[in-house]
Write a structure and sequence with these properties.
The structure is a homodimer of 247-residue chains.
Chain A lengths: L4 E6 L10 H8 L3 E5 H10 L4 E5 L4 H13 L3 E6 L9 H8 L6 E5 L4 H9 E2 L5 E5 L7 H13 L3 E5 L9 H10 L7 E6 L7 E6 H5 L7 E5 L5 E3 L2 E3 L4 H5 L1
Parallel strand pairs in A: 1-4, 1-5, 2-3, 2-4, 6-13, 7-8
Antiparallel strand pairs in A: 8-11, 9-10, 9-11, 12-13
Chain lengths: 247, 247
Amino acid sequence: MENGKLYVIGLGPGGAEDMSGRARAAIESCEVVAGYTVYVDLLREEFPDKEILTTPMRKEVERCRMALEEAVAGRKVAMVCSGDPGVYGMAGLIYELAHEYPPVDIEVIPGVSASNGGAAVLGAPLMHDYCVISLSDLLTPWEKIEKRLIAAAEADFVISLYNPSSHKRPDYLQKACDILLAHKDGATVCGTVRNIGREGEEANVMTLAELRDTPVDMFTTVFIGNSQTVELDGRMVTPRGYLQRED
Amino acid sequence: MENGKLYVIGLGPGGAEDMSGRARAAIESCEVVAGYTVYVDLLREEFPDKEILTTPMRKEVERCRMALEEAVAGRKVAMVCSGDPGVYGMAGLIYELAHEYPPVDIEVIPGVSASNGGAAVLGAPLMHDYCVISLSDLLTPWEKIEKRLIAAAEADFVISLYNPSSHKRPDYLQKACDILLAHKDGATVCGTVRNIGREGEEANVMTLAELRDTPVDMFTTVFIGNSQTVELDGRMVTPRGYLQRED
């Protein structure tokens, strides 16, 4: 029996046009596409002839085992993720689980992650050293998240926050802002982007003090500037220093 | 006269197949393509009918002014960058300079940055909270870089290093590793990727102690694991915690 192949593919932040040529070609080459229900709907339109395997949210381990088992059985499988599978996506779990199965060829095809996609909508907030932090404490103790927020603030990193809120954690962004406000100016330029690259895309630039009292949901990515970040004509921009060098 | 448009476009880490559909369509719609000489060569092949404007390395301000002036004059211009224009790219500088010109429509189209592209080659190192730090001190004082390295190590972030070395700074990665080794275990799993998505792509997984004595060049992106990062069948993988939760 021929050996299978498992691609772990990032679709980018928004619609089908955000996919890279490599991602598209890899999906085309597969018989089976696996993924979280919501993203797979997008693929049904683009690739109507593929067999589609889905599991709902929170069933990450099941979803990855399903994809691995198909590949181990000799099929070509595309496991798709929104954004980049290598950032809070399925790439790591696939490699961890693959260790339990007979050897199978795995290839990760990166996509544009929400931090990069959201930054492009807001302007250019991530032009200097930055941190990516998830506020979800489902898999990470809150104390660790808190420690990282403080370290990021003290070292003046730009910060991109994933999972800033959920039904069970409506006040986590507020908690995070309170921690940051102890180490950063309340006037620090911040931004939020909701539904990046999707219908209803919405971006807002505000101060850190205002961000604290801004309601956000799980479809929002949050950006907190460093001490140099400015608002320019409604855009959030962190200078890299090219112009300052010329002075 | 009709108003022009300036796209700032990320080509992704490697060849033309790493471009998104949105990036490709935007370039197609433009009359003029501007960029750093090396990346523009790739475009000459893909888009032979475009007028091409180039400036060499280090002429970033000139290059952005050139693109802005064409757009202000009413033309449709694509300013292209390798990777993501929003991460150590031209997006920020374009917005800073645009402030000096008559209003012009600017749109940033993100691409896969070297941290995400390199992570996909190595396995899945960026699955948990991470920092992106450039070791170039051309525009940033070394003391600030040092402070960020220490903060990232102490808060146990995964770290992705851009510009780990250059002709004038052959020992900067060694200096950075010495700082990290004061706060992290020498056995920490690390990785390097050279020529991501290009001819001669090369990835290596090693310990932090080994990384210290590994020569790298300006085409290399470096990854330093957090305390949970492991080597699994030759891949660098940072567990997110899904399997640990099941225990």
